[in-house]
Specification:
With 134 residues, the protein is α+β, with helices and mostly antiparallel strands. The chain has 2 domains: 68 residues, Arc Repressor Mutant, subunit A (Orthogonal Bundle), CATH 1.10.10; 64 residues, Ferric-uptake regulator, C-terminal dimerisarion domain (Dna Ligase, domain 1). The protein contains 5 helices and 6 strands. The strands form 2 sheets. The chain has a 3-stranded antiparallel β-sheet. A 3-stranded mixed β-sheet has the order 5-4-6, with no helix packed on it. A hairpin with a 5-residue loop joins strand 4 and strand 5. Helix 2 crosses helix 3. Keywords: DNA-binding, Iron, Metal-binding, Repressor, Transcription, Transcription regulation, Zinc. InterPro entries: FUR (IPR002481), Fur_C (IPR043135), WH-like_DNA-bd_sf (IPR036388), WH_DNA-bd_sf (IPR036390). GO terms for molecular function: DNA-binding transcription factor activity; transcription cis-regulatory region binding; zinc ion binding.
């Protein structure tokens, strides 16, 4: 493995200590020293190539980065505000076993997510409808 620079270490620590996935912009905003944003993206690419972090993109163009230390990983993602919450209850294991057996495929990992609207966005939407704003 190439050297883990101070920037790579700080990015990795931010991701490992976060309860929810972080975007590159979110990571950049949380860094103590402000490198250029391209350095953050290069650090993220390095960390992902080394298997230290993973990424996911939901129904938006933004990639979200999360720790590869916590498994299994499942998410609830709000398509309005893009808030993402992890949950760790895994019901996919028995389903994955059936899929793997029926297709002669070895599953080594999985990421599972639901996309919807969070309670806060739903309440705002209903309020806007009631107020005639929509």
């Amino acid at each position: 493995m190439k050297r883990l620079t101070s920037l790579r270490r700080e990015v990795l620590d931010l991701i490992n200590n976060s309860e929810s996935p972080l975007s590159a912009d979110g990571i950049y905003g949380a860094l103590k020293e402000k490198p250029n944003l391209s350095s953050v993206y290069r650090s993220l690419a390095f960390l992902e190539d080394e298997g230290l972090i993973r990424s996911i993109s939901f129904e938006c163009e933004t990639r979200f980065y999360f720790s590869s230390e916590r498994e299994p990983v499942h998410f609830l993602h709000c398509k309005k505000c893009h808030k993402t919450e992890p949950f760790y209850e895994c019901f996919a294991d028995s389903f994955a076993k059936k899929v793997a057996e029926s297709r002669d495929f070895t599953i080594t990992n999985h990421v599972f997510y639901f996309i919807g609207i969070c309670g806060e966005c739903k309440r705002k939407l209903l309020s806007d409808i009631e107020d005639g704003k929509l």
